Each structure stands twice: as structure tokens, then as C-alpha cells.
Amino acid sequence: MSSHALPVGDGPAVHIIHDNPEWIAPFTEALDRLGVAHIEWLLPETTIDLAAEPPQGLFWSRLSASAHTRTDPQVKEYGRAVLDWLAAAGRRVINGRDVYELEVSKIRQHRGLSGHGFDVPHTAAAFGPQALVEAAAGFAPPFITKHNQGGKGLGVRRFDSHAELEAVAAEFAPGGANAPIDGITLIQEYVQPAQSFITRAEFIGGRFHYAVLVDVSGGSFELCPADACTIPGAEADSIAEAAPPFARRNDVTADTPLISRLETLLADLGIEIAGIEFIETRDGRQVVYDINTNTNYNPSVESAEQTAGRQSAADRIAEYVADTLAEVAEPSVSPAGSTAW
């Protein structure tokens, strides 16, 4: 076997397709606690034999929109190829090909959210720096820019005047300091939270798990995996004392109307694991603006869940993966957690 061939195991296993080893440990550790066999498919530097069938088992795509910032800029295309290969063979993939297209396109996310009746930020897509300036003319300052293929707050910047954007528009051109990987930059209304936080609701198996408050008093707006991203140009609100950047939000539950609607959205879009971000404004809007299908979890929140006797998100995912693997394995497979054929 080629040293670059995707690895396979001897029994039923979940194959984790990903591009960042630093994000995997909480999940593999949780799978280990359940005795679930797992195999990592790390992109890039891999090959697939198009004449061969993929291995049996379960596949879980954890490919991210920000992969190009860490490794080969073509990881998105490698991921598409692998997911197409699996789909053609009829393999069961958690967050498969169509979901990956949502992960790497905020235009698709916006369309999915608005098409399901959610309040979304006013947004325009620009293809080139001059088009960006022209599109911004239709927005009252302040407004923000962001990359269509985002993650880690890529391209997210607040502008308080049109002249400010015009002065740096060249940075969004190919080869520029703020050039989007797919050439598409979004202009979006700046949504001011009623309080200095946004909310990220986490869903596992399509069902609500918990919600997290993310402090944005220091100027952050978008969530990075397990961290917040700061928008250059945003001003911090005055606060008496520093708040923890991440904390469980207890007043958002499975019975919250917005959460029920988001569960329906995920079911319609075929998304099994996701974090969805929304902002509540002073005038009563609930603005949903981001779907993260390569979701990660804040370690302090996860630790607090365990201390409180609740199930961490990583452990719930491991349980969901184990149950799904049992469904796709051969009939002779014993209950979830077994690795015997």
C-alpha cells in the first residue's frame, strides 16, 4: 500500500476526515472511552484509488472552511473528491458532501437560513475589489466585510465609513493581504447585540445540546473553533469587570422557539452536527448569521458540564457516532462500542 493511501482498519470503525490534528483529540479520546475504533483520514498528502471501493464502516467529515490558512490551499477540492468517492459508493457519512458545501460557503448558509424564514443580516456578495466598493454603497455605516469561505473570522472587519473601505479595497484583490480564497467577499450590515455577547447553539445528531454565550465586549464578533475572533476596528464596550469569554447560556433550552426552528433547519439540510450563531438586538431581532458544521467546543465549558454532572459535547458526539456505526455495521456487530465484526 502507498504511504499516502488513506488508512483502513480490520473491523468496523469511524473514519474521521479532517485537515487539522489539533482539533481532533477531544473526540478521539471520547471515542476511546467508549471503545469505538477510529481511523483518521488527514488531508492533504493522500491518495485514493478510484477503481477501488472505499472501506466499510462510518465516515465523519470534519473538514473546515479555514483549512487553506493552515495547509495546502486546495484542501477544499481534496475534500470534495473524497466525499464524492464515498457518496458514489453509498457510504454513510456524517455531515457529508452537501453539508461540506455549506461549510465552505456563507452564501449558501445565508440562502439556507433566509429560505427557512430566519432573520439574517442584509448581505451582498462582491466578486472583486471594485465591486466590493460599489456593493458597500448600498449599506449605511457601520458595516462589515467577511470572506465567503470563512472560519476563524477570515476577512471579518468593521468599517465605519465608505471612505475607510475604499482606502483598503485593493487588499481584497487576488494576492492582496485580505484576499478571499474563492475570490468572494461579503458586505454585511453590522448587527449590534443588545448586550455584549452573541450566542452559539450546539446541535448533535440534529438535536440541541447546549448554548454558549460568547463575550464580544472586546470587539469580537465571529466564533473561531474554541476561540473568538477579533474584528479590527470594533470598539470595546465599557464593562466593570472582565467576563469569561465563553459560558453556558442556561436560558436557551430545547424548548426555546428559535432552537426548535433551528432543529427543523438542520433536518431539512441534512446537517447532523453543527454550531449555529445568532445575535439578539436591542430592537428585539434574533439574527442568525453563521452555521459551523466543523464545530469545536470550548474546553472550560466542556469541563464545567462534566463538573455539573452533565454530558460534554465531545462525549455526546462519541455516543452518537457509536450508535450510528452500529447501524451501518454488519448484523453480527454487537452493541455500540464493540469493534468486532
TrEMBL record:
Q: SUPFAM superfamilies, per this entry? A: Glutathione synthetase ATP-binding domain-like (SSF56059)
Q: Which residues form the ATP-grasp domain?
A: 110-322
**Could you state one GO biological process linked to this protein?**
SOS response
Transmembrane parts of this sequence = none
Domain of life of the native organism: Bacteria
Q: Which GO terms describe its cellular component?
A: cytoplasm
- Report the protein name in the record: Glutathione synthase/RimK-type ligase, ATP-grasp superfamily
Species annotation:
Brevibacterium siliguriense
Organism classification: Bacteria, Bacillati, Actinomycetota, Actinomycetes, Micrococcales
